[in-house]
Amino acid sequence: MRNAGVISGVRVSHDHATVDEVASASDDDVRTTVESLLTNEEVSEAFALHTCNRAEAYVVTDAQATGRRALTDFAPDVRDGAVVEMDHEQSLRHLMRVAAGLESLVLGEDQILGQIKRSFEEARGAGGIGPMLDDAVTKAIHVGERARTETEINEGALSLGSAAVRLAKSETTLDGATALVIGAGEMGTLAAESLAAAGIGELVVANRTLPHAEHVAEEVDVPARALPLSAVEAAIEAADVVISATGSPEYVLSSPHVETSGETTLIDLAQPRDVDPAVDSLPDIVVHDMDGLEAVTDETRELRREAAERVESMIDDEFERLLKSFKRKRADRAISGMYEAAEEVKQRELETALAKLDAQGELTDDQRETVAALADALVGQLLSAPTKSLREAAVEDDWDTIQTAMTLFDPDFSGGEPSFDTPSGPRGAIPEDASNDADDGQHVLESLADD
């Protein structure tokens, strides 16, 4: 198939879905998701993002309808109302909003930017990143970095871990309390640091890999110790607050683990869940999951509203720049094909003319250069107006003009379904990328770049 030109996306996230629905859509890791999407011969590029609050996938295909079909099975067990489909422009803008922290449960949180970068590398390693998603995700990361350096969107650096501690503080007294953190990854580490800052008396860190738990325990400024995950039941007996954030595919805590622990506040930050929902029915046990953090995060959202408005404006500007870049590439593909075809004709006719002139009397080098210059000038002048028209067509989303030019001048162009399938479709769709065009036509294109 020819180089594809439109992004389609789908997401299951905290704003429309429950914790369990997000978990269902995140069954596979990023690399597996990308590799699975690439098995569809109509998909030329693929990217996925899985976090505790969202599961998303993006594909690049020839047409929007094709992309939607390719994503049909992304979250087959999730109800329709929890799955949000995105067209080309919606996907581009959403990626920027996610990277900037505007779509996070905790507005402006920093962890999402690192998660996007890691997912980007995973997708690249799986062969999913081509020119279009490279531009789109790179731009999103750039916007995320600008948002955090040029605004106060992450002022206070509130993370899900620290939000969980705020929630715990509203449920029980943390001063002098014993806290248990299950999981020594990024989320668990943030929760441990926030608990230490809240004035707890003792911290216990439990993890499947004991050295990781020991490292977290050594880093906090309160008395702390590490335990293997197998010893977690005894640790819960002495804990006033438990925050769980592992990557386990199975429940880490079930009713037998906590039924004799007495009054305990338990906050589950894991995706999928660490805590069996049946635990919530036990007396003296208060369980909160991601859905229970809304009240805490709403306060942060209000404090950061002004910064969020500045970030929205920043995204608008960067979005328009990205669309213009995509449109220029769309025009350049057609223009390059036009110049390549003209160059082939010019070279063939020039060789024929020089051969005939040589037969009438050998030409000097100066005479040969004069004839060649004449041929170049004719090509440049004849194609100057079409070049201008094609660039205007790209700006105006005039697919018919672009397609006609590509059909006329590009022998490999197959025509077919346009890259957007309605008049109001994605303005940034790219039928072809100009990066593979022949060098013979490229120098002429460059010389006319400022026309």
Automatic annotation (TrEMBL):
Substrate binds at T51, C52, N53, R54, S104, E109, D110, Q111, Q115. The keyword Cell inner membrane does not apply. Its EC number is 1.2.1.70. It is an enzyme of class 1 (oxidoreductase). Residues 10-151 form the Glutamyl-tRNA reductase N-terminal domain. Residues 311-410 form the Tetrapyrrole biosynthesis glutamyl-tRNA reductase dimerisation domain. The record marks H94 as: Important for activity. Gene3D superfamilies: Glutamyl-tRNA reductase, N-terminal domain, NAD(P)-binding Rossmann-like Domain. Signal peptide: none annotated. The active site is at C52 (nucleophile). Residues 410-451 are annotated as: Disordered. InterPro entries: 4pyrrol_synth_GluRdtase, 4pyrrol_synth_GluRdtase_dimer, 4pyrrol_synth_GluRdtase_N, GluRdtase_CS, GluRdtase_dimer_dom_sf, GluRdtase_N_sf, NAD(P)-bd_dom_sf, Shikm_DH/Glu-tRNA_Rdtase. Residues 167-296 form the Quinate/shikimate 5-dehydrogenase/glutamyl-tRNA reductase domain. Pathway: Porphyrin-containing compound metabolism; protoporphyrin-IX biosynthesis; 5-aminolevulinate from L-glutamyl-tRNA(Glu): step 1/2. Pfam families: GlutR_dimer, GlutR_N, Shikimate_DH. NADP(+) binds at G183, A184, G185, E186, M187, G188. Catalyzes the NADPH-dependent reduction of glutamyl-tRNA(Glu) to glutamate 1-semialdehyde (GSA). Belongs to the glutamyl-tRNA reductase family. During catalysis, the active site Cys acts as a nucleophile attacking the alpha-carbonyl group of tRNA-bound glutamate with the formation of a thioester intermediate between enzyme and glutamate, and the concomitant release of tRNA(Glu). The thioester intermediate is finally reduced by direct hydride transfer from NADPH, to form the product GSA. Possesses an unusual extended V-shaped dimeric structure with each monomer consisting of three distinct domains arranged along a curved 'spinal' alpha-helix. The N-terminal catalytic domain specifically recognizes the glutamate moiety of the substrate. The second domain is the NADPH-binding domain, and the third C-terminal domain is responsible for dimerization. Homodimer. This is Glutamyl-tRNA reductase. It comes from Halogeometricum borinquense.
